[in-house]
Amino acid sequence: MAYAGKKRWKGLVVGVLGLVLLSMLVPLLFLLGIHNGFQGYGSEQPNSPTHTTPIIIKESSEEDHVKHVEDIVKHFAPPIFKDLLKNISHNAENKTNEVTLQKTEQEKEFRALPQHVPLSPSIINNSKVEKVEMIDYAKGGIDESGKTCQVKFGSYCLWRQEHKEDMKDFMVKKLKDSLFVARAYFPTIAKLPSQRKFSSEMKQNIQELEKVLSESTTDADLPSQIEKKLERMQAVIAKAKTFPVECHNVDKKLRQIFDMTADEAHFHMKQSVFLYQLAVQTMPKSLHCLSMRLTVEFFRDPVYDMESLASKYNDPALQHYVIFSTNVLASSVVINSTVMHAKESGKLVFHVLTDQQNYFALKLWFYRNTYKEAIVQVLNLEEIDNRKLFLSLPVEFRVSFGIDAEARTEYLSIFSHSHYLLPEIFQKLEKVVVLDEDVVVQQDLSALWSLNMEGKVNAAVQLCSVKLSNLLKSSFDKTSCAWMSGLNVIDLVKWRELDLTETYRRFVNEASTQEGQNEAAALHASLLTFKDLIYPLDSVWALSGLGNDYNIDMSAVTKAAVLHYNGKMKPWLDLGIPKYKVFWKRFLNREDQFLTDCNVNS
User: Fold this and answer.
1) How would you classify residue 601: left for phi > 0, otherwise alpha for psi between -120 and 50, otherwise beta?
2) DSSP states of 59-121 as a string?
3) Does the pTM of the predicted model rise above 0.85?
């Protein structure tokens, strides 16, 4: 029994000694952990301010000691101290972004470098560098929203500043935009029971703007107090934006704006096309006035003695020019420009072929106006040889090639049905030069009368951008070029030998049954009639495209002998290209009283 009691006493002593030894070892281990950089169990807590990182064995430094002690203090600090640190950190976050960025970058650089290494000036002034870079980046300017424009190629913000124009009726457009925005938010505000007063206020502002816009279409029509109403509306919209909005209402209004804008753009596009065609196909009011005034004046005193010049009308020794026209001004410019540049105007005879409606106006005009020593004969094509003939002017065909960006358009002028009556009308003449009414002559044309046409019938300028094989694939090879009317030298003797008039009529009948359109039939018939009978004139004789092409080289315009305004934009129309109209207008007789009375010179 004594042995057993002694054994139990020894066990208790050993246990007590073990506890004492253990109590001494725990602080010792803790201290050893501080010395070796060993992070204790506190670092593994999820709410610990220190980051969980792998254990890395490395040499210690005073900075590591200080940092580790600070972490321990933060971890074991009382709640009041923690709140104080939290408030301090919160106040620091409320500083500007520039200061935060500066401190963060400096701390990173400071921690990355040993303590004994001095910081470079560039690192210390890092915030200044970033500030300078932001100023350079903002050189593009500031847009309407106050944001800086990005300096890069294709920036819409910069483009808008460079091409900014004063908006017409800006206030009206701004009122409409505000009205649309208010209507988008109103359904949502009206459903809120607590905002009935604000809803009625919003409704009242909407009704006021609707009334103003119903009575005003321009800024000049707006009432004097409109700016205050706009300010009230903008304040209402700003308040409405603070409430939760039903997105489908806003989406619905935006779609309405888009649809209305698309419909308006489509309407204006159709309207512009219609007005363009109307301006092209109708006679200007001033020209109609001139024709009517001349016709009335003709019948007041219809005795005009022109019989003394009849012998020269059919003299083959003279230079005969033929013009198909119903336009008094256009035919006058053609004759005037030709005579002004002719070396011997006494040899020039002009034959103007027109219809019954414009015959008397043209006859009086050329009786009142003289062109040096040149002679002008006006013929009514509908009464020649008591035959029922109808005047048809040269036909222009719009030919387009390619698609999208590579597309190009040319206007091809071709003889009309009336041109094939030339051998019958001028039976005593051997050669004539045919001029269209939309040309201007800039040089002497006498060299055309000594031209050796090598047995061809029609001398014309070729338009090689249009291949005849594209128009009639089965009849021409790929190298054949289309020819143009405007300036044509016609050998009437050779024409009569080949009986081209009958050949043309036969082709017209054949093409009419196949094509079903008179204009298309005339095009095909003309091309086939003069197949292998075209003598190509040098391109310097005539320059075409002045009625449709804005990009013609002006040096080529000044060098050309004849300018051809083929296309829709004729020089006597308001649609004419201004830089080309100058060459046409210089040959107008601005001193004529009829031009002044009909406001033609304006």
Assistant:
1) alpha
2) ---HHHHHHHHHHHHHHH--HHHHHHHHHHHHHHHTS-HHHHHHHHHHHHHHHHS-TTSPPPH
3) no
What is the C-alpha to C-alpha distance for residues 258 and 430, in angstroms, rounded to an integer? 67
CB 213, CB 199: distance < 8 Å: no
User: Among all chains, which residue has been given the structure tokens 């001028």?
Assistant: 426
| Span of 93-107, 233-247, 348-362, 370-384 with lowest mean pLDDT | 93-107
23, 24, 29, 31: CA torsion to nearest 10 = 120
What's 166's DSSP letter? P
Is the Cβ–Cβ distance between 312 and 374 less than 8 Å? Answer: no
26-63: pLDDT as tens digits: 666 555 554 444 443 333 443 433 333 343 334 444 45
List the strands of the sheet with 562-564, edge to edge.
439-441, 562-564, 542-544
Place of tokens 């040319």: 410
Separation of alpha carbons 539 and 560, rounded Å: 8
Cβ-defined contacts of 367-372 (< 8 Å, 24+):
367/304, 367/306, 368/592, 369/332, 369/589, 369/592, 371/335, 371/336, 371/339, 371/345, 372/339, 372/342, 372/345, 372/346
Judging by beta carbons within 10 Å of its beta carbon (0-12, 13-18, 19+), is residue 257 exposed, middle or buried? middle
Separation between Cα atoms, residue 522 and residue 512, nearest integer Å: 9
